[in-house]
Amino acid sequence: MKFEEFLKSISKIENIQLPAETSHFKMVPPYRHELLKKQQKAIKKAKHAGVLALFYPDKKEETKIILILRNTYKGVHSAQVAFPGGKFEDQDETLQDTALRETFEEVGVPVNTIQIVKKISQVYIPPSNFYVQPFIGVTQNTPQFVKQDEEVEALIEVDLEHFLDNQSLITKSVKTSYSVEVEVPAFKLNNYVVWGATAMMLSEIKDLLKQL
Length: 212
Prior knowledge:
Layout: H1 3-10, H2 21-26, H3 32-38, H4 40-43, E1 47-57, E2 63-70, E3 81-82, E4 85-87, H5 95-107, E5 115-119, E6 123-125, E7 130-138, E8 152-159, H6 160-164, E9 169-175, E10 181-189, E11 192-194, H7 196-211
Parallel strand pairs: 1-7
Antiparallel strand pairs: 1-2, 1-4, 2-3, 2-8, 5-7, 6-7, 9-10, 10-11
């Protein structure tokens, strides 16, 4: 989809009701409900993070969304595909500020070039005890991405039509942070498998965009 057409469509998104759990449920890992029951006490002390689903035009004026592959490290989100973003810091006034700041730090897109178009439904991540608040944003120029090598292994530029195509939905056997092999619903985008919380957020974004 040409970016100019996408901008016209997404301007209507503000008035669309969030599908929330209806969308999330499509991509929920099978063990999630059990984890939520076990972590009722921990949830009360959950940390907060902000992430950004950033849409932009490539050099051919086609619409794309940026994802990142996190570096391999000793942590529950090692080597996973995610949105740019991170945890709320004292310097942030809001979680939107967090998402914008982290996007600049991780992929180099200046905050003042990004327009936030909608806050979508937050997602709780049991393994790290985080509530993640996603935002949808656009930047009207083709970004000159700068990867933060300390945290980001690769930048994944996904074509909008590839993302919206139901052929990108798969089921994948993955090893969870609890070292258990499970079959999970996932997206396969640019040959990367996206599952868990990021897939749940992508599912809501996809359902919103389909309504446009």
